[in-house]
Amino acid sequence: MKITEYIAKSKGETMVSFEVLPPLKGGSMADIFNTLDRLMEFKPPFIDVTYHREEYVYNKRPSGYYEKTAIRKRPGTVGICASIMHRYGIDAIPHLICGGFSVEETENALIDLNFLGLNNVLALRGDARQFEDKFIPEINGHKYAVDLVKQVNDMNHGIYLDSNIEKGTPTDFCIGVAGYPEKHFEAPNFAADIEYLKQKIDAGASYIVTQMFFDNNKFFAFRDACVQAGIHVPIIPGLKPLTKKYQLSSIPRKFFINFPDDLVRLIQKTDEKDIGQLGIEWSIAQCKELKAEGAPCLHFYTMGDVDTTYRIVEKI
């Protein structure tokens, strides 16, 4: 079922969903199942599975020189999605990224997803490679997420890259995209970022999942700005609880978001051993307010921390 259909079927009730990371290469599906087995109690309609582009590593050769090698540390997104659907009988949403794919490889990946019965995708540009200061697309690949959305939408209309295919079978993907309540760090300003998001919706995207945030006022302002810009698709808030004091600096540095003043003051005067509980309580309060304001779904970035996620969701 499409994400938009789940939202319509819920008739205003707020759902919960979760995002998981593929295990590191050499890991096991048991890592995923150990997380999701507990969370299935909350009857999520779908699970997101992230995709990670290749990273560069430098291996020392016998000669003493270092060899630059590209590796994927967390492969298996599509297989994990198929396993989740088989084990739990719910939908799984693979992330689809621009980085690391040519347009032909993207088309082939979409064909595989379609054959597997995966009819939802989250279309993202993806991050720059480690040690690169800006995003560099693959040769003959997409530079922007909007172009990826256009390609998926073309396939939904039976349009393939090979112009000799006159009557291609249409796919039926429901396309999600990312939104940034505090703007994407590369956007020149908030208004421009909303315009870029509008372009992705106009290109065929059907729903939005936001970057994490800790100040609901940022989300509400983002939601209102979307409506003013003519964006009328469901907007799903993305949530991650704070669990360690060092995240006061690491999260803004990595995700380019701000902590509200009240939370910063609480963190600064709280002992390290109590930070986890503080983060849970803050997240519970966020969730309750978001539900009261009609959020269609609360999407939790689990980051492998099932216990914290469970303690939040059981209270809301």
Describe this structure in words.
The chain has a single domain, classed as TIM Barrel, CATH 3.20.20. Helix content is 40%, strand content 18%. It has eleven helices and ten strands. The strands form two sheets. An eight-stranded parallel barrel has the order 1-2-5-6-7-8-9-10, surrounded by six helices. Helix 2 links the parallel strand 1 and strand 2 (46-49). Helix 4 packs across helix 5 (145-156), helix 5 (145-156) packs parallel to helix 6 and helix 10 packs across helix 11 (306-313). The radius of gyration is 20 Å and the shape is globular. The two termini are 25 Å apart.
Q: What labels would you give this structure?
A:
eight-stranded parallel barrel, single chain, 10 strands, alpha/beta, 316 residues, 40% helix, globular, TIM Barrel, 11 helices
Explain briefly what this protein structure is.
By secondary structure, this protein is α/β, with parallel strands linked by helices. It has one domain (3-313): TIM Barrel, CATH 3.20.20.220. It has helices at residues 3-10, 29-39, 77-88, 103-115, 145-156, 190-202, 216-228, 247-255, 261-268, 275-292, 306-313, and strands at 15-20, 46-49, 55-60, 66-71, 91-97, 120-124, 174-179, 207-212, 235-239, 297-301.
